[in-house]
UniProtKB/TrEMBL annotation:
Main location: membrane
Bilayer topology annotation: Multi-pass membrane protein
Record flagged with keyword Protease: no
Transport recorded as keyword: yes
MacB-like periplasmic core domain span: 39-251
Subcellular location: Cell membrane
GO biological process: lipoprotein localization to outer membrane; lipoprotein transport
Family stated for the protein in its record: Belongs to the ABC-4 integral membrane protein family. LolC/E subfamily.
Family annotation (InterPro entries): ABC3_permease_C, Lipoprotein-release_system, LolCE_TM, MacB_PCD
Transmembrane domains' residue ranges: 31-57, 280-304, 324-348, 390-409
Name of the protein described by the UniProt record: Lipoprotein releasing system, transmembrane protein, LolC/E family
Amino acid sequence: MTTAVRDTKPFSSFEWMIAGRYLRARRKEGFISVIAGFSFLGIMLGVATLIIVMAVMNGFRHDLFSKIMGLNGHVIVQKLGERFDDYEQMADKIARVPGVQVAMPVIEGQVMVSSSSQALGGLVRGVRESDLKALKLVSGNIRAGTLDGFDEQTGIAIGVRLANQLHVGLGDSITLVSPRGAATPFGTAPRSKPYQITSIFELGMSEYDRMMIFMPLKEAQKYFSKGGEVDVVEVIVNDPENVDKFRTDILQAGGPSIAVADWRQRNETFFNVLSVERNVMFIILSLIVLVAALNIISGLMMLVKDKGRDIAILRTMGATKGAVMRVFLITGASIGIVGTLAGLLLGVVFCWNIDSIKNFASWVTGTTVFDPSVYYLTKLPADIDPHETGGIVIMALVLSVIATLYPSWRASRLDPVEALRYE
């Protein structure tokens, strides 16, 4: 009478016990354990690196976006073929459009800024006091002085890095030289005028802190010989990511004499480069996880070859092909799963403490690891996106499981008779 062999339940304690024994190091299996260890480290470091790099790239984009959008308008309104001298009425009409927060007339011009010790290039923006205070990036980061009474004076507000490079402080005077001066019989003469510093701001973006100068709108009209007109009206909306839905309403409010451009058109190349760089970095760094998954395959193949006698004995004792396959599936997948979770923990902890780690690396190497003058921002940002991080973890887990399928299948196909023939 033949007794039918019953398969154990999938992923039973018996299979987990054998997989656990295979994961523990044995003296004669030292080389296999080394491969498993490198596979674990590879997946852990690959996942952690992906999380850190993607978080830093997201942080860069978020900080640059907030700085650029916090200082410049989301929609730019210009006049077509005529003087922009009705800017106050135009700004009032646009400000009444639903979703528009601020409509600010702006005059912009490049100047040379000089003090008794230094001369540098700068960018002057003539704005009204109420509009400047509405820019929280500026009004919320005043380091010295005040913006109160900005319209009633001829003083200017400059960035902290510009003040440091010019070796000036609050109350000191600096000279602005503009190439757009008065017309003479010999051509246009540069205009030079001293201005007192009434406030100093720090925006957190080195390029802006080094060159940006704010001047009262009326004074900017005099200085740049604009008369009663402005260059543009910059509009700040409450949802800059969906700026398209405001364009039609702004055009209708402004009339047929205006042209409208949004922030994406003005910064299209810059943000496209960031997006491409981010995608390329993700693809390149994903190869680290892929290589670690290939290490799992090689380690499991060697383990299957080394455990041929054990597999044959298990089969003769009644273990089914499915049970053998699941044993090695658990063995390989455990390396990938634990490595992925360890990489997730390492990446998140690294991102949370990235500034402390950066300062420690600077102290150890004696160099500036993150130079604000090179990278625009004054601090190293890291913004963890939960959905993106979840995608990285799922990708690593899937690769780890897929890597175990072929070696596990090979183990289940092993013939007990052939394995025990020469034992």
